[in-house]
Design brief:
- The protein is mainly α.
- The protein is built from five helices and two strands, in the order αββαααα.
- It has one domain.
């Protein structure tokens, strides 16, 4: 990795981590279901989906992928916090919220990624 590539990666990572921190610093619960992590995962997936289309259509330099996809979206989204939230729900015998958490994080993140791709494709092609 060259110096400028590292700068792109680092800057994207810091921005993504800061936004995740701000969005998750105050726990947001829906009943016993933690939704902060769900929110950052869905937002990150949507942004990544949109970025993939922009990157392909505009033939962006790989450094922008380091910034947006790996750095920003990688630091914004969080599989480890999703796993911890799920484990905590399991430990507390909250099986319904656990199932909702798993399905929502995976299903909504994939849906958001597809939505981001679709929206950006519609914007760019028109």
């Amino acid at each position: 990795m060259k110096g400028l590539e590292f700068v792109f990666l680092a800057f994207g990572s810091v921005l993504g981590a800061f936004l995740r921190y701000k969005l998750t610093e105050s726990p947001l619960l829906f009943n016993t279901l933690p939704v902060n992590v769900l929110i950052v995962n869905v937002i990150g997936a949507f942004i990544l989906g949109a970025f993939v289309i922009v990157s392909q259509q505009w033939n962006l330099d790989g450094r922008y992928s380091l910034f947006a996809a790996v750095g920003f979206c990688g630091s914004l989204t969080t599989m480890s916090s999703f796993a911890l939230d799920s484990s905590n729900l399991l430990d507390n015998n909250h099986y319904g919220p656990l199932l909702i958490n798993i399905v929502a994080n995976i299903g909504l993140s994939i849906t958001a990624l597809i939505g981001g791709k679709s929206l950006m494709s519609a914007i760019i092609t028109h």
